[in-house]
Amino acid sequence: MKRGIIVKLLGGTYSVCASDAVYECKARGVFRKRGISPVCGDNVEFDVTDDNFGVITEVLPRKSLIIRPPVANLDCLVLVSSVMEPSPNLELIDKFSAVSIFKNIEPVMVFTKTDLKSADEYTKIYSDAGFTVFTADNTTGEGSDRISEYLKGKISAFTGNTGVGKSSLLNNIFEDLCLDTSGISKKLGRGRHTTRHTELYPIEGGGYIADTPGFSTFETNRYDIIKKDELARCFPEFSEYLGNCRFPDCTHTAEPGCAVIEALNANKISSSRYESYRTMFYEAKNIKEWEIK
After folding, report:
1. Taking Cα atoms as reference points, which of 197, 220, 201, 219 lies closest to residue 210?
2. Is the pLDDT of residue 91 over 90?
3. Would you say domain 226-292 falls under CATH 3.90.1150.10?
4. Fewest Cβ atoms nearer than 10 Å: which of 48, 222, 223, 246?
C-alpha cells in the first residue's frame, strides 16, 4: 500500500506522485458506487501491481474541493489583477475572495503592472480586510520572489482576467512552467483547439501549481452559490463585529444598531468591500432554493 497525490488525470488514467516515483493508476469501480470521483489534488492510497501499475483504493479526506475545474485540497487561490490597463474590478475580486473563503481556500491578492501605477490604494483595502497581498512588476520581476516563497509547500491556482499579466507573473515566479504570454502553454503543447485538463506541477521548495483552465477568468457563479445567511463570514473584516448587532438576525444591509454598518461609518471597513457585500447579499436573496441544489 502506498500514498501519493493525484497530479494528472487523462483518459481515465491517474498520475499519482508518491515519495519514490510517479505511478500510472486506475481507480476502483467502487468509487462510482460511492459517488466519489478522484480528482487532481486528492491524496490517495493505492496498491501497485507486478507490472508497476497502480490501483487507487482510497481517497483520503479533502479539506477543499472545487468541481469546475475539478481540483481538491487547494491551499491558495491567487487572484491576479493589474492596477491599470485594465483597472481592477473590485467587485469581482470581492466575489471571488468570498467564494474562496466559503470553499476553505485562502485567497491571496496580487496586483501587477506596478511600473505603470502605484498599487497602494488597493493593497490598503485588502490588507486592512485581513488578506495577504502582494505587488509585482512583471517587467523587472520585482515582487516575484516574495510570492514564490509564500507559495512553497502549498497547492495553489492562479486566476485573473485577460490582460492582467497572469502568464508573465507565473513565468517570473516559476520559470520552468514555460507559459507564453498569450496564455498558451508551451509545456503542454496547447493550441486554441487542444483539449485542456487540470494538472499539478511541482515547484522548487515543495508544493504544486495547479494548471486549471477553468480558472482563466473571474466567473464566480461557476464555483459555488453562497446563501445570504452564510455570506457575512466570507468577509473576514466583518468577523469582530458579527454578534454585536442590535438584532440577532441582522443582515448588515440597513438595520439600525448594526455593528458592521457602524464600523463602515467609522471607516473601519472599506466602502467598496461593503458595497460588494450588499450586492452579493441581494443576489443571494433572489436565488431560488432549487438553484442551490
Report:
1. 201
2. yes
3. no
4. 246
